[in-house]
Amino acid sequence: MMQFKVLAAILMILGLFILFRVDAVQFIGLLLKPWNKKRKTKERIDRIVGKTPSRLRQMFNNSQDMLESADMGDLRKYQLGAVLLAVAGVLIGTAMNNILAAIVLALGMVMYMMWCYGTAIMS
To answer: In Å, how far are 112, 116, 119, 123 from 70, measured between CA atoms?
Structure first.
C-alpha cells in the first residue's frame, strides 16, 4: 500500500512540474545554488593560489570538455538519467516490499547509467 502512496506523490510532483512548465534540472540547480556558490568561490581561491583540483574534479572537467567537443550535450542529461533510473529502482524495490532490493536496484541503475556515460565518452 505504501508503494502506491509513494508513486502517487511522485506522479503529483511530476504533474506540477509539467503544469507549471518548470524544468526539473533548473529547479534542482536553484535549490543547490548556495552550495554551488561556495564551491565556485573555493575553486576560484584554489585557482588563484595555484592548487590543482582533486582527481575527481579533474575527471569531471575532462568529461565535460569531451562532451562539449564531441557535441554530445551536457553532463546534466546523464546525471538526470541516473537519478530517474535510481527512482525507478527504489519504486521497484518498494513494490516488492524489500528495502534492501530497493537500495541495490537504485545503486545498480545509477552505476548502469554511469557505465553508459563512460561508453558514450569512449566512443
So the answer is: 22, 16, 13, 10
Residue 75 has pLDDT above 70, yes or no: no
CB atoms within 10 A of CB 106: 21
pLDDT above 60: residue 122:
no
> In terms of DSSP H, where are the helices of 20-74?
24-31, 33-49, 55-69
Q: What is the pTM of this model?
A: 0.48
Q: What is the pLDDT confidence band of residue 121, given thresholds at 50, 70 and 90?
A: low
Place of cell 535510481: 86
Answer for the pair 63, 75: CB distance below 8 angstroms, yes or no: yes
